[in-house]
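Contributing new complexes? Match this layout with 2-phosphoglycolic acid.
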Amino acid sequence: YIQALQGMETGTLKIAVVTTAKYVIPPLLADFCNAHPGIEVTLKVANRAQLIERLKNNQDDIYIFSQPPEDMPITAEAFLLNKLSVIAPHNYSGPDHCTLASLADQRVLLREQGSGTRKLIDEYCRKNGIEFTQPMIIESNEAIRLAVATGLGIAIISEHTLAHTPTDDVKLLSVNDFPLHNHWQAVTLNSRPESLAASGFKQFLREHGDVTG
Ligand code: PGA
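Output block (do not edit by hand):
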């Protein structure tokens, strides 16, 4: 037991997260690293498609996705709720309390192909026959939030992206079916032997998440 404990106190832990999870994981890392100062942590941030490539190449110990790939030998464990909401400039005066279809002719700021956020929005639009007439691609959540705040258009974005920003920066619209819900999941490749540091971090996420059972 003591050896197991010592094993966990040293070594490296390579974590790779989708860009939107960078709002979720770093605040947790402080507590984890303070409790286990001997573990050397590296954190990679990339979009969903880039993270799937890293997973295929077995580059990291733990991956954080909201939509893990479905066709790979992995273990995925949900630990925290993720909500996608529709945001508009604070002085927006267009439709509100409405459907997403009734916003389709607004300029909509969207993440790039390969983004998990984008994938979820595309799936919702396909299912509901919605096509945006003025889409604009912006490859960063922060850039999208700032562009919305200054009046460029509306966007659908994880509420985590809005944490730690002035509350009057942007306005949350009330749109049917929104927020869309999914969960942040800790993903590991089944063929990679799990280090003590990795299983310790997964346990830590379980204890600090909001998923029970
Ligand atoms: P993204 O992923 O940063 O690639 O948009 C977010 C997600 O998977 O929810």
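Reviewers usually confirm one structural detail per submission. For this one: Strands lie at 11-18, 39-46, 62-65, 74-89, 107-110, 134-137, 154-158, 170-172, 180-189.
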